[in-house]
Write a structure and sequence with these properties.
234 residues, mainly beta, 15 strands, 0% helix
Length: 234
């Protein structure tokens, strides 16, 4: 059997994290340190690898705190391949830095990376950002996902940077962030397709903002007014 398909063989590397291709992550487990991955993101693996559910300390129903990201622990010896809806993947190396991430865009991270849930005031109205995000800190690898190739915007002191709230993936935690509506009429609450934009995030300070070339539909959790039923003919 011959086909160019068989050219897409395993990426042989000793790196712990490597891209098999732009939409698939290859993680090498050595039996000593585990990797946390988005639940259900495993598409293939080799070796003796175990996948177990994992809940961050202080989160979940019993604690009363929101569970903003469902993770599984990958442990053992072997190679794990991770992906999610063919999204583009990006490996970041945190070096005692802080990064705030819209939680649905996290694919995997080292178990040594610290995190905490931060509240985005007003974010409960935004489908993309949501009411809570993750602040990642410490040292280790983090793998983010974007729908398409992203834009990384540099924020410099004295100048604001604006981005559609439905397209923002991550930003430097030291930035000041404000959430504001671009429109003052009721169309800001509706699904896209109107002539107006919805919500935007304004960033100031010094750092970076990661924006993807895709906007999620605006608020699905916001209650909408349903017109009263008209009386039928008698």
């Amino acid at each position: 059997m011959q086909s160019p398909l068989f050219g897409h063989t395993e990426n042989r590397t000793d790196d712990r994290y490597a891209l098999q291709n732009p939409q698939m992550l290859r993680v090498r487990l050595d039996g000593r340190s585990d990797v946390l991955a988005r639940s259900g993101a495993m598409v293939a693996h080799t070796g003796r690898v175990a996948f177990t559910g994992w809940t961050p300390p202080g989160q979940g129903r019993r604690s009363g705190n929101p569970l903003v990201l469902e993770l599984m622990r990958c442990s053992g010896e072997g190679t794990v391949y991770l992906a999610n809806l063919a999204q583009h993947l990006h490996i970041l190396d945190l070096q005692r830095e802080k990064l705030t991430v819209t939680s649905p865009y996290v694919l995997a991270l080292d178990s040594a990376v610290r995190w905490q849930v931060v509240n985005i005031q007003g974010g409960e109205h935004i489908a993309g950002v949501g009411a809570y995000s993750l602040e990642l800190s410490g040292s280790g690898r983090v793998v983010l996902m974007t729908s398409g190739q992203p834009l990384v915007m540099r924020v410099e002191p004295g100048a604001y940077c604006y981005a559609d709230a439905d397209a923002v993936v991550a930003w430097s935690s030291q930035l000041d962030v404000q959430l504001q509506a671009q429109s003052r009429n009721t169309e800001v609450w509706r699904r896209r397709g109107t002539a107006t934009e919805g919500w935007e995030m304004a960033f100031s300070g010094s750092g970076y903002v990661v924006v993807q070339p895709s906007e999620l539909l605006p608020p699905q959790r916001v209650p909408l007014r349903v017109p009263a039923a008209r009386p039928g003919p008698r």
